[in-house]
Amino acid sequence: MFDNLYGTGQSTMDAIIRTTNVLIAGKVVVVAGYGYCGKGVALRARGLGAKVVVTEVEPVAALQAHMDGFLVMKMEDVSPRGDIFITVTGDRDVLTKKHFAKMKDGAIVCNSGHFNVEINLKDLKQLSVSYKQKIKNITEYTLRGNKKIYLLAEGRLVNLAAAEGHPSSVMDMSFANQALASAWLAKNYKKLEAKVYEVPAEIDQKVAKLKLASLHVTIDTLTPVQKKYLASWSEGT
Amino acid sequence: MFDNLYGTGQSTMDAIIRTTNVLIAGKVVVVAGYGYCGKGVALRARGLGAKVVVTEVEPVAALQAHMDGFLVMKMEDVSPRGDIFITVTGDRDVLTKKHFAKMKDGAIVCNSGHFNVEINLKDLKQLSVSYKQKIKNITEYTLRGNKKIYLLAEGRLVNLAAAEGHPSSVMDMSFANQALASAWLAKNYKKLEAKVYEVPAEIDQKVAKLKLASLHVTIDTLTPVQKKYLASWSEGT
Amino acid sequence: MFDNLYGTGQSTMDAIIRTTNVLIAGKVVVVAGYGYCGKGVALRARGLGAKVVVTEVEPVAALQAHMDGFLVMKMEDVSPRGDIFITVTGDRDVLTKKHFAKMKDGAIVCNSGHFNVEINLKDLKQLSVSYKQKIKNITEYTLRGNKKIYLLAEGRLVNLAAAEGHPSSVMDMSFANQALASAWLAKNYKKLEAKVYEVPAEIDQKVAKLKLASLHVTIDTLTPVQKKYLASWSEGT
Amino acid sequence: MFDNLYGTGQSTMDAIIRTTNVLIAGKVVVVAGYGYCGKGVALRARGLGAKVVVTEVEPVAALQAHMDGFLVMKMEDVSPRGDIFITVTGDRDVLTKKHFAKMKDGAIVCNSGHFNVEINLKDLKQLSVSYKQKIKNITEYTLRGNKKIYLLAEGRLVNLAAAEGHPSSVMDMSFANQALASAWLAKNYKKLEAKVYEVPAEIDQKVAKLKLASLHVTIDTLTPVQKKYLASWSEGT
């Protein structure tokens, strides 16, 4: 969660700025998908002064985006209004012919989701009369009527292709988590069945505790009376 | 989740403002607990211009507060610096003698958690040379050296006692959820075992869908190809 | 500036919440005017989770609102989309017949500008088949087709009528400023011509210094070398 | 104002991220100076999830930072707590021996003000047992006890040295402004005295109008009645 929410958010916006040198303040940034990655990207885009519009297919996530103060719209409806489109859904065909056709001249599109299928490149090419690499990591597509759409990093993960991926201070947590989970596995594998296990909560807590210590952040601890109250309360209601 | 995160946040800050008419901008607001309620309160306090400090006992929640840009400290350490203290932990004795003793003159303390045990009133009274109801919902405690601490709503839920609780536009979702969950129960109870069930995801989605419709928010839907891709991808990795 | 920016922002949103108990998160809040008051209201509305749209007549202010991440639109265009309309322009006829006619059912309108002329009540009445005081400070106007528009505080300053105006912690600065300005006047009036003077910068600084001291905020002071550098630099370029 | 507030804010944070690949979320970022540049940097650092502390010498600016929700402290007091220090004061010696001595291991220091005198490099070198260029634009200073301080871009303007300066979408406004101001000068120079003139408000408005048009943002215009009201009101009070 931490690397998706905090890492992807920063590194995606960083990648877009590095590649295009565009001022984010004032721009309409369309974020497709409001999972952890999408939330992180939406939050950072807003933090840089953008007007953020979220598209979603899942009603609970859509409602959460709405309540978090983002405009929630259908991709088709927001296509003519977006300055920058960022796909983070994990699905394919998030941006297709009908969206490209409606975008305005100069729109920037990129992907920070799983693979380069979120933006349908075949569609984009079909709509275009020509395309060329403009500068590193920017391909300029010229559509009929001389409208330009700028594709970053060929639709691959923009934060890996055009920036340096997650900052090391997030990834250390992910790696620590994986290391401790492996250790736990090695110790407990005989008791485990053949199914998917969640990382035990104790490991998440241990990693968080180590990270906080490294940050010199000290937190409170429960007294025995507080522990007892919590336990009784959990039982009592 | 929605009523805790969005409802409690607004109604707690609303209650404090109504009761005290204090300007939140610039104040150090200490939020004890970073669950959904605590997050909501921290977010709204920041949104009103406060410097928010979070206290926690759970390392993962503490780390999240830290990454969300809040100062995370021990209650003992932040006690001399807070202007307004809000407890939302669900546990007892969050504010006790040692905290009151360190607070500055004029500190405001209130509770938006579960019961009036979060703030240890016995301790507060013991430290005080006198106390009196100042105006409605404000009790002024005078400690040795003429230091004043202002307790709101006698330590009971400040957003219920001093404001109007959750706005109706949040609670309708909670009630709809409970109603639909009851209907589901009535239909399925024969199949259920004697244990705690989560509300089925379909019900959450149904409520969210109805709410979005009432808000005139339209969202995207998956195409068959997208659904297939998602399914295969879920299986494939 | 301080009371307009920080005071009006909080007290206006406070007044709306008190009067209507509406959840701000997710709402489209339209702020007419982006002076100090408008900025304060826009900032706080966003801080409470709203999607804020700003209307302006002055291009520099409009551009600033745009760069601050707010949608900037014509009032006519945003009329069908707003949930809550707040006028803070200092001019008349900000909301008129053509706007009311386009508003959606349940829209809330209020004024936090100078007088009750910002919302054209004559127009609202002409469009309505009936109106009645719903609860304190809410008048329900019923338009043709049974559309309801809710007017707060009869269009007078909502933060004075329905809340308690500026929090005392802002107003003390304004009053201190006025007091010191009066003292300055008393001392210097013989030297003054018959024209409008700005409050001398020294008075603003003195008030700010006293306020910071009362807040226990300590700030840096320039060394002689720094002062000299600043002075030479001011001259040199 | 626009390029300082919006341009410097983004480009400074961009430069720090590019150079160090550090995650901003959770970091204590110390911004020295709360003029337009400082505000922009503070706002963007917060938008990226930092805890921002502001230092100032001017009380009114300090109070504004405080009311904007930033911690305001003396540089000496915040020196042991900052992760990243950014000077934007326009003065010299903002960071000196006494500050470096208190900083924690791994602190990052950089300048986004006017010249490379804000960070006293002579002091930093005197405190250090060695220093070396670590990677491009990062010099690692090793102080006694093996404490490291990382200086970006040798103390020169980090947003020019390590990023690409202001995004073009801000600078176009500055240049347009300068061009129109030059045209105005050429036309009016005979009437001008030998003193500093402000750019006429009409030019700012013209640039803003052109910029809004290029952004497809339409704004309201005053009716004759509104203009008259404003004028009479300006006179009347």
Characterize this entry briefly.
Chain A has 237 residues and is of the alpha/beta class.
Keywords for this entry:
homotetramer; 237 residues; alpha/beta; eight-stranded mixed beta sheet; 8 strands; 46% helix; elongated
What is the succession of H and E elements of chain A? Answer: HEHEHEHEHEHEEEHHHH
Number of helices of chain A: 10
Q: In which range does the helix fraction of chain A lie?
A: 40-55%
Task: Please give the oligomerization state of what you see.
Answer: homotetramer
Largest sheet of chain A: 8 strands, mixed
Number-wise, the strands of chain A total 8
Q: Specify the overall morphology of chain A.
A: elongated
C-alpha-based Rg of chain A, rounded: 22 Å
| Overall pLDDT metric of chain A | 88
Largest interface: A-B, 45 and 45 residues
Order of the strands making up the biggest sheet of chain A: 3-2-1-4-5-8-7-6
Q: Kindly name the structural category of chain A.
A: alpha/beta
Distance between the termini of chain A: 30 Å
List the uncertain runs of chain A: none
Strand content of chain A: 15-25%
Question: What would you note in describing this structure?
Answer:
4 copies of one chain form a homotetramer. By secondary structure, chain A is α/β, with parallel strands linked by helices. Chain A is 46% helix and 17% strand. Chain A has helices at residues 2-20, 36-47, 59-67, 75-78, 97-102, 121-127, 158-161, 168-188, 201-214, 224-236; strands at 28-32, 51-55, 71-72, 84-87, 107-111, 128-135, 138-143, 148-152. An 8-stranded mixed β-sheet of chain A has the order 3-2-1-4-5-8-7-6. In chain A, helix 1 (2-20) packs antiparallel against helix 8 and helix 8 (168-188) runs antiparallel to helix 9 (201-214). The longest helix of chain A is centred in the C-terminal third of the chain and has 21 residues, at 168-188. The radius of gyration of chain A is 22 Å and the shape is elongated. The two termini of chain A are 30 Å apart. At the A-B interface, helix 1, helix 3, helix 4, helix 9 and helix 10 of A face helix 1, helix 3, helix 4, helix 9 and helix 10 of B.
